[in-house]
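Blinded run. Sample ID left blank on purpose so nobody reads anything into the name before looking at the predicted structure. Input follows.
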Amino acid sequence: TMPRSQTMPAARASVVSARRPMADSTASMRLPSRLALTTGLGTPTGNVGLEYTRGLSKHFELALGVGVAIHGGHPQGAAMPRARLQGDAVALTVGAGMSVGAFEDPAGLLAFGDIGHGDQTAAESGTIVRPGPVLWSNAELGLELGDQEGVFLRSVLGVGVITADGAENQPRGESRRGFVLPYLGFTIGSTL
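Blinded prediction complete.
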């Protein structure tokens, strides 16, 4: 028989080597966290924002973002769960979520919404006295390009619908609920 001191190192080596592949496979299955700068027109995080994304599973992620709308300087916040179809360097994302923030209508877009002022803009009709907080329901489709280092670029096309309106309206007390705003956004970020 072998002395005990000679069998122990061999046993330890086999246990360590048996653990290594498991640790490596666990590391490769780790779900990524990402941090990104967002910009765009009408996006859930405003015109400029910051987004943190956490992978929930191989095909699902949750993005949380904050930002600011350039017109009026109003803060925005968003939560966007996304489904993700990942290729080698390209991913397709589909998301549906909520965002909140004050909304002003500097372009008079509400004339095309449910308020019904015809050719008159909201500013001309005197409808909105001050911007108020609104809750948006958002849906988007995105295309993402990434590299081996974890840097990625994403472009999104989406639509937001006002689902709750906290603005003070006059003279008829009409709400902006149901107003639809398409958006276009771009993101650049990196895996953490």
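Unblinding after everyone has recorded impressions. Residues 11-28, 111-123 have pLDDT under 50 and may be disordered.
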